[in-house]
Amino acid sequence: MPHGWPDYFMTLPKENIYGTTDVLELLARLKMLSPGLRRGNIFWIDFFEIVGGTWNYSFLYHTPQLYRTITNPAFGVTHPYFKWSYPGIGWVKFETETLMPPATTVAIECYFISDTYLNSFTIGYYLKGEEYTYYYEFNVNISLDAFKWRKSKDEYIIEQKYLQAHLFTEHPRYIRLGFDISKNKYTYVMLNSNIHIAPDFEVIPERRNDYNVATFTFTYVSTAYMPGFTPLCAAIYIND
User: Fold this and answer.
1) CB-based contacts of 86: which residues, under 8 Å, 6+ apart?
2) Burial code of 211-226, b = ≥16 C-beta within 10 A, e = fewer?
3) Are the CB atoms for 236 and 105 separated by under 8 Å?
4) What is the pLDDT of residue 96?
5) Quick one: which of 46, 40, 82 has its CA closest to 188?
6) Domain residue spans in the chain?
7) Which CATH number applies to 39-238?
8) Does residue 68 surpass a pLDDT of 60?
9) Angle 186-191-195 from CA coordinates, rounded to 5°
10) Of 61, 203, 54, nearest to 124 (Cα)?
């Protein structure tokens, strides 16, 4: 029974049944869907409440300890926490498969925490068709003050940017990448509260025989002493 309505709520007129009767209760039940740009229709979303779950994790250099943490339960009760217990490079990539989105404007986003200095991170969405695969991928290299937009398998568009490294450390951070599948072009990237318009170029597909599926991927890199990383939320929007 919705808060503030009687037990016979479902007998009320249709416009009331489907109306938003209590916004606060709705938010409490659905949780916070997006901490950043709130537009578009949700196509897929995951809160990392189950350690592992449908995600595939891969590591380079050193394998971290994997914990379930309740320190920053931004969206769910727990989240995975990757902690490297020795000096070295903290590198983790996680990916999962989703259905193919329609040919429209799409946005992918990730909300995360790095409890140490962050060198770079990459967000991507790979659309694997029967003949071609389109790689929409964006890299933020904080060490080099650069953005890298993937154009093709071996070509990237690089933009020099002044990136304040402290803005990507300790506090929850947010990235959202927008692109237009119908035009094979990027539209924008949003870092925390700052939106950057994408350069104008077409993504060149790679010819391959695959099946109709899409892959969401995120990569974290830190060379800090004993780095730690917590993914909080990942989402895909259409009609962005």
Assistant:
1) 62, 226
2) eeebbbbbbbbbbbee
3) no
4) 94
5) 40
6) 39-238
7) 2.60.120.200
8) yes
9) 60
10) 203
